[in-house]
Write a structure and sequence with these properties.
CATH architecture of the largest domain: Alpha-Beta Complex
Main location: other
Largest sheet: 6 strands, mixed
Strand content: 5-15%
Order of helices and strands: HHEHEEHHHEHEEEEEEE
InterPro entries: Papain-like_cys_pep_sf, Pept_cys_AS, Pept_his_AS, Peptidase_C1A, Peptidase_C1A_C, Peptidase_C1A_papain-like, Prot_inhib_I29
Catalytic activity: The recombinant enzyme cleaves synthetic substrates with Phe and Leu (better than Val) in P2, with high specificity constant (kcat/Km) comparable to that of cathepsin L
Oligomer: single chain
CATH superfamily of the largest domain: Cysteine proteinases
Enzyme class: hydrolase
CATH class of the largest domain: Alpha Beta
Pfam families: Inhibitor_I29 (PF08246), Peptidase_C1 (PF00112)
């Protein structure tokens, strides 16, 4: 066989197998998409919609792969229950654009920071101050969950009782914030003070949409006296958390759409600290495989991340995690 013949054979083989490779890729993609639909109970209104969601799913897989290849932590990114949503849909349904609008921020008095250093690790889940993970649904009410989580912790630290408190009360009765359209923790604390406190989750249960305010003073279970803004130094935040309880915080949630487990450390290009758009609850901190982390209670259900939790690299002000740390005060 001469060189020309070998080249011919090589080209023919390449031409023959290229469509087969594309076919195999498509089969694998369809398999992943079908598995996603079954796992998260997805149905679509038409074949056109299903085809569109498959395309979005495919693009999201590429984004997750990019995050994975560039992550500096131990995180695993991939298929999540948000994998059929575009970035814009995800932001509209689950995030909170008001958080990055500095002009809307209420001024808060500064917290008195501890003088001593933070212990090497701390987790309020181990001390009984954290209620089970909740689910905000398709409503940008993360701000309400962040604040109630903080107050649940404060109430526990002061009284020894852990009570699940009502986010729906804030969605319905906080007249400054915008319910499912987003809100700010600083406004929410003020609303709670004016209302006189929070009812329990049982008495004022969550629906995930704004309704008329049905708050009853007689049913108030927890109250607050004031609220404070924490330092922007992560060591001081850790020290305050360990001494006082879980902290309401906000961050840029871009990488969270595809997060599955591990300590997330996305590049700054994926996690602009000035574009914070999701409020969550810092419940603790520590180190895993040499990576310092924040343990973050999210409000997207227990089928998100690690049993509803997100772990973010600690110590480099990542994703703006240090920019909006606050807490209620219960005297």
């Amino acid at each position: 066989l001469n060189q020309k013949c070998l080249q011919g054979q090589g080209n023919e083989v390449f031409v023959l197998f290229t469509p087969v490779l594309h076919f195999l890729d498509s089969v694998e993609l369809l398999g992943q998409f079908k598995e996603f639909m079954v796992r998260y109970n997805r149905t679509y209104s038409s074949q056109e919609e299903a085809d569109r969601r498959l395309r979005v799913f495919h693009e999201n897989l590429k984004t997750a792969e990019k995050l994975q290849s560039l992550d500096q932590g131990t995180a695993e990114y991939g298929v999540t229950k948000f994998s059929d949503l575009t970035e814009e849909e995800f932001r509209t349904l689950y995030l909170n654009p008001l958080l990055s609008q500095q002009n809307l921020q209420q001024s808060m008095k500064p917290a008195v920071m501890p003088r001593g250093p933070a212990p090497p690790n701390w987790d309020w889940r181990e001390h009984g101050a954290v209620s089970p993970v909740k689910n905000q649904g398709m409503c940008g009410s993360c701000w309400a969950f962040s604040v109630t989580g903080n107050i649940e912790g404060q109430w526990f630290v002061k009284t020894g009782k852990l009570v699940s408190l009502s986010e729906q009360e804030l969605v319905d009765c906080d007249t400054v914030d915008q319910a499912c359209g987003g809100g700010l923790p600083s406004n929410a604390y003020e609303a709670i003070e004016k209302l006189g406190g929070l009812e329990t989750e049982t008495d004022y249960s969550y629906t995930g949409k704004k309704q008329s305010c049905d708050f009853t003073t007689d049913k108030v279970t927890a109250y607050i006296n004031s609220s404070v803004e924490l330092s922007k130094d992560e060591n001081e935040i850790a020290a305050w958390l360990a001494e006082n309880g879980p902290v309401s915080v906000a961050l840029n949630a871009f990488a969270m759409q595809f997060y599955r487990k591990g300590v997330s450390h996305p590049l700054k290009i994926f996690c602009n600290p000035w574009m914070i758009d999701h409020a969550v609850l810092l419940v603790g901190y520590g180190e895993r495989q040499g990576k310092p982390f924040w343990a973050i209670k999210n409000s997207w259900g227990e089928d998100y991340g690690e049993q509803g939790y997100y772990y973010l690299y600690r110590g480099s002000r990542l994703c703006g995690i240090n920019k909006m740390c606050s807490s209620a005060i219960v005297n």
